[in-house]
Amino acid sequence: MPPYSSQISLTDGRRNSLKSDDQVEYVPVELSYIEVVPGRKVAYRNHVGSKGPTILYIPGFLSSMELKKIIDVEKFAREHGYSNVRFDPESCGFSGGSRETIEFEHWIEDALCIIDRVCDPKEPILIVSSSVGSWISTIVAQKRPDRIHSMLFIGPAFNIIWKAFIYHYKIMSDEEKKRVDDGEYLVVNLKYGGKNYLRKDFSEKTKQFEIDTASPININCPVRIIHAVPDRDVSFETSLQIASNIATTDVDVILRKEGDHRLNTDNDTTQQLYEIHRLITQYPIKN
């Protein structure tokens, strides 16, 4: 267990007691919206701290910024004076858009918009991301390398959408396959709650954004990767492959003996906050 919990603060590697969450009422940052392109807005919350880096969270597949583990990162940032930005990609949470028409490319554009127009341009960005969000964060980090301080991947799920579609397609009835091939969608239950519109066109288009994890990945900032060994959705071995081929020499992989793909228990969050703290203290910003 790393020397961090939601009840304590880490400063220079020492424990300093803080008021617990039940003693300090959490008030979320005001909800704001930004127009990515005409007619398409995304929701975000921007806490302006007294120092950098800005901690930006890019959520996973169809995930909202209101997940507890994402809010816990904001709480950490606020307690320690760092800026924090979290947002809902198109068709998720408070953001507009329909899952009948969403495109993977839109989620990349959303993240770039937040980096370019919401995050303080004077502060480097520490990107925290989970699942498919780590795939997206890798794409945007390669497009904005000068903005990125470091990255934390939580159960990274690169190139997973087309594979998931093929899995579902194989178990469809002939009638369902024909409907999907003709451009219709099927509503499927997501493993961790909620529903998804299974669309062939959406899934197939993601292939153009796939990252070859067996070849060099052009990311040169420090990277930390946390993955659960029992993850049944994405094998932890994919994280080892990413670590082996990412350009930076400063990459650590932390394997959790317990847990699932979401890594959202209190112990998981403790580990994630510790890695954020470690990245910031190892690579301090001159504010």
Structural description of this entry:
One of its GO terms (molecular function) is hydrolase activity, hydrolyzing O-glycosyl compounds. This is Mycophenolic acid acylglucuronide esterase, mitochondriallike [Latimeria chalumnae]. It comes from Lepeophtheirus salmonis. Pfam families: Hydrolase_4. Residues 78-164 form the Serine aminopeptidase S33 domain. It is a single chain. By secondary structure, the chain is α/β, with parallel strands linked by helices. The protein has two domains: 8-158 and 214-282, Rossmann fold (3-Layer(aba) Sandwich), CATH 3.40.50; 160-210, no CATH class. The chain is 32% helix and 25% strand. An eight-stranded mixed sheet has the order 3-4-6-5-7-8-11-12, with helices on both faces. It has a two-stranded antiparallel ribbon with strand order 1-2. The chain has a two-stranded antiparallel ribbon with strand order 9-10. A hairpin with a 5-residue loop joins strand 9 (185-189) and strand 10 (195-199). Helix 1 runs parallel beside helix 8 and helix 2 (104-117) packs across helix 3. The longest helix is centred in the last third of the chain and has 17 residues, at 266-282. The protein is globular. Residues 1-23 have low confidence and may be disordered.
